Amino acid sequence: MLLAIPVFNEADSLEGVFSEILDHLPPEIQAIVAIDDGSSDGSAEILDELSQKHDKIFVRHHQENHGYGCAMIESMKIARKHGYSHLVTMDCDRQHRPADLIRFIQMDPDIDVVSGSRYLPDSRTQGNPPEDRVEINSRITARLNRHYEWSLTDSFCGFKRYRMENIDPDQFKETGYAFPMEFWAFCRRSNLLIQELAVSRIYTTDSRSFGEDLDRRRRRYRYYLETLKSAEKKFQVDPAAPGASTDR
Ligand SMILES: Nc1nc2c(ncn2[C@@H]2O[C@H](COP(=O)(O)OP(=O)(O)OP(=O)(O)O)[C@@H](O)[C@H]2O)c(=O)[nH]1
Ligand SMILES: [Mg+2]
Predict the structure, then answer these.
(1) Which ligand is closest in space to the CA of residue 134?
(2) Which CA distances in Å does 181 have to 26, 86, 87, 128, 196?
(3) Cα 201 from Cα 191, distance rounded (Å)
(4) Which residues surround ligand 2, an ion (CB under 5 A)?
(5) Which CATH architecture group holds 2-239?
(6) ∠ CA 30-32-36 to the nearest 5 degrees?
(7) Which residues lie with the beta carbon below 6 Å from any ligand 1 atom?
(8) Distance between Cα 241 and ligand 2 center (Å)
(9) Residue 167's Cα: distance from chain center in Å?
(10) CA of 205 to the centre of ligand 2 (A)
(11) Kind of pairing, strands 125-126 and 57-62?
């Protein structure tokens, strides 16, 4: 199993997060790859040092920032190329608990996508997410559930386990934060088996807030929805369920 960690300007978190990962590293995880995406805050150097010290840690550097989705696609390509059956992805901004890694690994290996959820009754909470995050997530999640007859509770969690056999990374083109939209449309088209797993919801700082500006919130929602709709077209997903025309 491969663990991939997208990194963009996380110098303050990296040492702490990696030391916790190494403390909790299940033996099933054979390698850890960090995708440093043009960080300019010293993250690149910290990652290089970590990889020099630990055999299991590898780093890919991008000279320029290509986006979160690009790092996800690249991680999948690495997993495929090196023959890993499963890929786990985890953020390194202290919002995911390395102690939860083992729980992803213990899930039935035949599940195609084990998707972390911060909104299940068993999800432990620490701090409160910005209200716009909750709103956008719940609207998009409801839209997916309505059209696909799913029962997801969190469609934007980056803590996931992918079984690579049925996932072809060449199918994906979305390089930004809307990557999960393209991925869910693909899951639906390919009828993948998805199961959520309760993970912690940790928001101890609001410095990441995109702001409360309604226009920006609406723009972000539209960007997610448009990405989802164009992925549905590309993958010929039939959004036949009632309510399809009510989205704005
Ligand atoms: N490779 C890469 N990683 C990124 C990029 N943007 C963010 N990341 C990493 O992806 C993870 C999630 O990014 P966040 O910006 O925290 O996204 P989020 O957790 O969905 O949003 P918040 O709720 O604001 O925390 C972190 O580990 C980031 O360092 C990017 O452009 N490229
Ligand atoms: Mg985050």
Answers:
(1) 1
(2) 30, 21, 19, 24, 16
(3) 28
(4) 93, 95
(5) Alpha-Beta Complex (3.90)
(6) 160
(7) 6-8, 10, 35, 37, 65, 67-68, 71, 91-93, 95, 133, 156, 158, 208
(8) 32
(9) 15
(10) 10
(11) unpaired
Q: Give pLDDT tens digits along the chain (248 positions).
A: 999 999 999 999 999 999 999 999 999 999 999 999 999 999 999 999 999 999 999 999 999 999 999 999 999 999 999 999 999 999 999 999 999 999 999 999 999 999 999 999 999 989 888 888 999 999 999 999 999 999 999 999 999 999 999 999 999 999 999 999 999 999 999 999 999 999 999 988 755 555 456 678 899 999 999 999 999 999 999 866 554 443 43
- Work out which ligand 1 atom sits closest to the CA atom of 92: 27
Residue extents of the structural domains in the chain: 2-239
Separation in Å, CA 47 to CA 27, 41, 56, 177:
21, 12, 12, 23
Q: What type of residue is 86?
A: H
3-state secondary structure of 181: helix
Is the entire prediction scored with pTM above 0.70? yes
Cα–Cα distance list, 242 to 136, 145, 148, 238 (Å): 21, 11, 11, 12
For residue 196, the cross-strand partners are 115
